[in-house]
Specification:
CATH architecture of the largest domain: Sandwich
Number of helices: 1
Largest sheet: 8 strands, antiparallel
Number of strands: 20
Mean pLDDT: 84
Helix content: under 10%
Low-confidence stretches: 1-28
CATH class of the largest domain: Mainly Beta
Oligomer: single chain
Length: 245
């Protein structure tokens, strides 16, 4: 019987092994097929929700700005604010507007690029005009008309949602030098170019919350949580991160 000695040649490329016998050495090539390529995923975008954040009102039993930069004051002091469970069911962790009451937030910084984010749950469908529930002078606004939400600019550029229900929804409106964008629950629902000269803002804006000057002092009824003001245009990744918080 022939005896075989197996010798591995580790220093040769492509790899081969040799069978040695009395008849000679016969190289036997292994497969030289390239290994399958490992698919590389695109890097996740960097999200910094603290960048250019000018105010964050969590309404956890109070109207304090968590960043300490802004101050909210009660409109119509004859009434008291009420609190309710937030979207996660935590008691007294969201503000509830159920009467002729609202908030005024002065001196919100403005720039060409700004964004507003908020969680809301509507409790009625207004039919007598658009009722603002977040509105900044010379800035951005959220409004409700019947069973739809609107995002708008002060100059009258509007983006309209489809029908909405009375559950919690996350709204974001962004503005830069070229466009207005409206997101609901992390999805882009509207995008509109802005006309030239659309920016009549000053260095700051006054925001009124849960009522509107131009709506005959109509008051919005519903719950609100995590109202945030940014002095930049939030990206899609930013919007997703806020929605998933």
């Amino acid at each position: 019987m022939k005896k075989h000695i197996i010798i591995f040649a580790a220093a040769i490329t492509p790899f081969a092994f040799f069978s040695c016998s009395k008849e000679g050495v016969q190289p036997q090539q292994l497969s030289t097929a390239e290994p399958p390529q490992i698919q590389k995923h695109a890097p996740m975008p960097i999200v910094d929700l603290q960048k250019d954040l000018d105010g964050r009102f969590e309404f956890n039993g109070n109207v304090l700005d968590q960043t300490g930069q802004l101050k909210a004051k009660l409109w119509n002091s004859r009434y008291k604010l009420a609190y309710t469970a937030d979207r996660k069911g935590t008691p007294n962790a969201a503000i509830e507007y159920n009467g002729p009451v609202g908030l005024v937030i002065d001196d919100v910084p403005q720039d060409t690029s700004v964004s507003v984010s908020v969680w809301v749950r509507s409790e009625f469908y207004p039919t007598n005009g658009n009722v603002p529930f977040v509105e900044g002078a010379g800035s951005l606004a959220f409004e409700q008309f019947e069973n739809t939400y609107q995002a708008s600019t002060w100059n009258g550029t509007y983006l309209l949602s489809g029908p909405i229900d009375r559950n919690w929804h996350h709204l974001v409106v962004t503005r830069d030098a070229n466009s207005l964008k409206f997101y609901i629950d992390g999805n882009l629902v509207g995008n509109s170019p802005l006309p030239a000269g659309a920016f009549g803002y000053g260095p700051t804006s006054q925001f009124i919350i849960a009522f509107g000057w131009n709506a005959g002092y109509q008051y919005w009824k519903g719950a609100m949580d995590n109202l945030c003001f940014y002095r930049r245009t939030l990206s899609w990744a930013d919007v997703q991160a806020l929605y998933k918080q």
